[in-house]
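Quick one: sequence plus phosphoribosyl ATP SMILES, need structure tokens.
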Amino acid sequence: MSGAERFTLADLENIVAERAASDDPKSYTASLKRKGQPVAAKKLGEEAVETVIAAIEGDPARLTSEAADLLYHLLVVLEIGRVPLADVMAELRRRTAQTGLEEKAARNPG
Ligand SMILES: N=c1c2ncn([C@@H]3O[C@H](COP(=O)(O)OP(=O)(O)OP(=O)(O)O)[C@@H](O)[C@H]3O)c2ncn1[C@@H]1O[C@H](COP(=O)(O)O)[C@@H](O)[C@H]1O
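Reply:
Sure thing.
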């Protein structure tokens, strides 16, 4: 393990919320918040593509780095969109009652 056992996405969510609310000119989070959701969401999309490329290339170190960028930017988009991570986790927890294919069928009945 990498020593990150006690650091959770909820911890990072708290940091992101604090930085988004700050007017620190050195804060990347605050700058994304100022630019607004279209810019932050586009950045999330770029990080998703970079993660896909790293996954296909099969480089675990690059995949780790790009996945970290992706998760951070997802938390920024959730913060700007006023969606608590707990709501996303509750939705994921709800889905544990069924298999992925059952969940897919429930979304697209018929
Ligand atoms: N985990 C992260 C994190 N991961 C990635 N990034 C930033 O996301 C950007 C990634 O974009 P790119 O790789 O495309 O690099 P870039 O070209 O410099 O980015 P752009 O100029 O295109 O936006 C970089 O600026 C990274 O520094 C992050 N910025 C912040 N955090 C966390 O958020 C905390 C608060 O950060 P500040 O708001 O900057 O204080 C930090 O202490 C970290 O814990």
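The chain has a mean pLDDT of 93. DSSP finds six helices and no strands in the chain.
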